[in-house]
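Query structure, 223 tokens:
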């Protein structure tokens, strides 16, 4: 009788343990990164170039807006450090001093078509972006720190034949079928072999440091 009772107790304990295992929530595996493609029509990158010099009042600040950005992003919101990405910007599609862009940036005055064409020609020339030899600016994500949505990115930027690794804060959000990456950084033109514009022995010139703002919109890549 005692053995039967003990056996019954053992079976009861076993059944109880099995019940707990069934009812206990299974440990969730980390979510897999999602693959996105940059929406070239919706994504923008702007570069603010500020004037300097004794006669700077006679010159203008400039705003350059890059369009046609292409690339891919592999993002994991639960483990941002696993994220990767690359983008490429064709310099031929950069717009110079669009009136709406100037207004958004708070830059006074507008440039006529002739002045805008002159600024663009200089920007694409051999001392600046050297577009004939280097038609694209590229950026590759090399590291991510922080917790979504506020992250700190390490990005290897290539302009002309030179590369620089920049650290920049960014806000990265996933909403429905869209990934948005927003951020800004300051970089030196001279670090990429670019000679900042100078005229009249420096009386009219632009600053070496430029401010870059970007908003990348990306859509999921379908299998």
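Result returned for the query:
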């Amino acid at each position: 009788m005692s053995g039967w009772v003990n056996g019954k107790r053992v079976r009861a304990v076993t059944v109880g343990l099995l019940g707990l295992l069934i009812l206990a929530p299974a440990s969730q595996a980390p979510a897999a990164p999602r693959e996105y493609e940059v929406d070239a029509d919706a994504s923008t990158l702007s570069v603010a170039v500020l004037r300097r010099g004794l006669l700077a009042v006679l010159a203008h600040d400039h705003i350059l807006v890059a369009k046609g950005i292409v690339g891919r992003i592999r993002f994991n919101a639960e483990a941002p450090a696993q994220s990767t990405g690359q983008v490429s910007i064709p310099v031929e599609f950069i717009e110079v001093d669009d009136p709406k862009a100037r207004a958004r940036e708070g830059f006074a005055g507008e440039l006529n078509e002739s002045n805008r064409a002159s600024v663009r020609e200089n920007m694409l020339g051999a001392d600046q972006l050297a577009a004939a030899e280097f038609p694209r600016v590229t950026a590759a994500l090399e590291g991510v720190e922080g917790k979504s949505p506020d992250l700190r990115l390490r990005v290897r930027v290539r302009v002309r034949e030179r590369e620089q690794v920049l650290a920049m804060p960014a806000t990265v959000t996933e909403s429905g079928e869209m990934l948005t990456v927003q951020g800004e950084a300051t970089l030196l033109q001279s670090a990429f072999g670019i000679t900042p514009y100078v005229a009249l022995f420096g009386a009219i010139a632009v600053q070496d440091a430029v401010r870059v703002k970007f908003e990348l919109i990306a859509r999921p890549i379908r299998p």
